[in-house]
Amino acid sequence: MPHETGFDFQHYNPVRTIFGPGSLEHLPELVGKRRVLLVTFKSAREIGLLARLKGLLGDRLVDLIDEVPSRPELKDVQQAHERIWRERRVELVVAVGGGSVIDYAKALLCLPESGHFFDLITRSTPVVKRLRLIAVPTTAGSGSEVTPFSVLWDTRDANPTKFTLHQSRIYAETALIDPELTLSLPKLVMRNSGLDALSHALEAIWNVNATPMTDLLAVEAARTLIAKLPIAWHFQGHIKARIMIARAAWQAGLCLAQTRTALAHALSYPLTIKQGTPHGLASSWSLPWVWQQAQNNSAERDAVLSRIYGPSETDPVARLCELLYKLEVPTEPQAWGLSESERARIVLEHMHNPKGHNFIAKGLRL
What are the two backbone dihedrals, phi and then psi, of residue 140, each rounded to the nearest 5 degrees? Predict the structure, then answer.
């Protein structure tokens, strides 16, 4: 039986958050006189965002990385890290983009004692110098602007490998969250990002690391996303829905920083690695099944989960399936190229890694 939360816990998040429509205009005052490296995504130039950022930063902008892909490559980050710390021109990194862009930027921030980038990834090593970061998300999903994680990929061979840098010194100095920036997102990217946030919220609840604070944040985030994602899916320019989704993604990110993820994320990686399924989509299709597995393992966790749809709801798993189908996300493993036995195999493989250990159920109903 998992321990009950609320008696022994810790909570830490050092990131200052500035939230609201139009808040990107605060960027110059946050930067001050510091020399800036701007990290952003490939299409920022095409949509006019890069020009806007250059105008806001002016002559403080001394370096630019503007082609960060959706899965940051370890070798590219290594090369950028070596160049930046060799040249020593930059005092501050400004990352403007989705979770991949912010993760890329976070991996550049610290210089290990050895001077070798890979020592940040492969072993615990003292950090001797550090750059500061202002994280400006243009999607509402990853929560990377308030977490101490950076996910990088090595796809040089037939079996791509995911690396997660977990380092308290890569927390952003400031998260600048302007929901208006999400209005330029393609419909599918908006949905997939929101589903990533939903998975973070739910995974924070059926998690052995849950705390009273993460429960409060996760329930509100999940309720908001369930209500507002269908509106944003059908009405692309609905700014109120975008504001609420952005706030929920931030809340879910605050949870993620404390609890980390669990079983639904473990199920996502084979789809992302082998089939190229976007991360938020790959993390969400299994949520109803994982919720079913989570039920009846802890009365305390069941009580928190019941707050999402309300205690009178008799079948929250079916309600969650309905939401996903409204968003055109099938929940059957066969729709994702998996048989029931393959899903069971993946789950059993991951029950003994950190994500499996975070999940409240230690025995599964397969």
Answer: -125, 90
Strand partners, 166: 149
Q: What is the DSSP string of 109-161?
A: SEEETT--THHHHHS---EEEE-EEEEEESSSS--GGG-SEEEEEE-SSSS-E
- How far, in Å, are 129, 195, 364 from residue 289 at the CA level? 45, 15, 11
DSSP helix/strand/coil, 337: coil
Amino acid identity of residue 324, one-letter, is L
Q: Which of 346, 357, 354 is nearest to 366 (CA)?
A: 346
Does the pLDDT value for residue 7 go beyond 70? no
Residue 339: CB atoms within 10 A of its CB come to 10
Note the Cα 321 to chain centre separation in Å: 22
Query: How far apart are the C-alpha atoms of 145 and 164, rounded to whole Å?
Result: 15
- Residue 177 CA to residue 244 CA, distance in Å, equals 12
- pLDDT tens across 134-160, in order? 999 999 999 999 999 999 998 887 777
Cβ 350 vs Cβ 331: under 8 Å: no
* Residue whose C-alpha is closest to residue 36's, from 57, 56, 65, 15: 57
> What are 102's strand-pairing partners?
none
Answer yes or no: is pLDDT of 5 > 60.
no
Q: Which residues contact 364 (CB under 8 A, 6 or more apart)?
A: 293, 347, 348, 351
Quick one: which of 324, 140, 102 has its CA closest to 242?
140
* Nearest residue to 177 (alpha-carbon basis) of 30, 39, 23: 23
